[in-house]
Amino acid sequence: MTKVLFLFYSATGYVLGLASLTYLAGFLIDFGVPKGINDGEVRSLWISVLINASLVLGFGLHHSITARKSFKRWWTRWIPEPIERATYVYMTAAVTFIVVFFWHPIPITIWRVENSVASTLILTAYAAIWLMMSAATFHFGHFGFFGLRQAWDRYLDRPAASVPFTARYLYSLVRHPISLGWMLMPWFAPHMTVGQLVWALSVTVYVLLSTKYEEADLIREIGDDYLKYRAEVPTFVPGSRN
């Protein structure tokens, strides 16, 4: 019965995780969602900037802190390992809801692309970046990334599958394709407002600052193989030296 409950819990988390990311994709460009980034009551500019930047910081810190090995060792004292990653996905969905619910719109236009062809190309690039980020999760196990594989392994009573370190596909071009996607994606908006700019700048600053700590963890975890990989593959810009 416990194995079945773990599997149901993780499967529900998987669906919820995909749904929250899909909503966030629509939220950031005001497309196809009940509340977009420019919807809601407009309030003081600087208070809105401060609150929104804090929401992005909280969104980023959740991902960074809960990804640390020390945090995982601590909370798996209470959260069974087969559902540890799924619980992280539930938390991510909750944090996404908080960001959307408490976001203060700042609908001051920075640019607006009126040409339908240009607008379509921008939206296509936006969707392509989301697809690239999704594709990057398959490099180290898409279902494990969302916590479903762990519960499935437990259901089958087989040892948890380990993912060997490899540098293939997107990870042979840059070391952090998902982080690169988070930085690029907000800029591909046919209508850019100050609110969207706050998101874009806050995410970019956070990723650049947090990546060095993530790299330090990877060096401690993987060792010389990662040092060699880091020397050969750039951080964010394909073909660059770093």
Largest sheet report: 2 strands, antiparallel
| Cα distance spanning the termini | 50 Å
Helical proportion, percent range: 55-70%
The number of distinct β-strands equals 2
The best one-word shape is globular
- State the helix count: 10
Round the Cα radius of gyration to an integer and report it. 19 Å
Please identify the structural class as seen in this structure: mainly alpha
Low-confidence stretches: none
Strand proportion, as a percent range, falls in under 5%
Strand order of the largest sheet: 1-2
Q: What is the mean pLDDT?
A: 92
Q: How many separate structural domains?
A: 1
H-E string:
HHHHEHHHHEHH
Quick structural overview:
This protein is mostly helical. It has helices at residues 2-27, 45-67, 69-75, 84-102, 116-137, 142-145, 148-155, 177-184, 194-222, 224-232; strands at residues 109-112, 191-193.
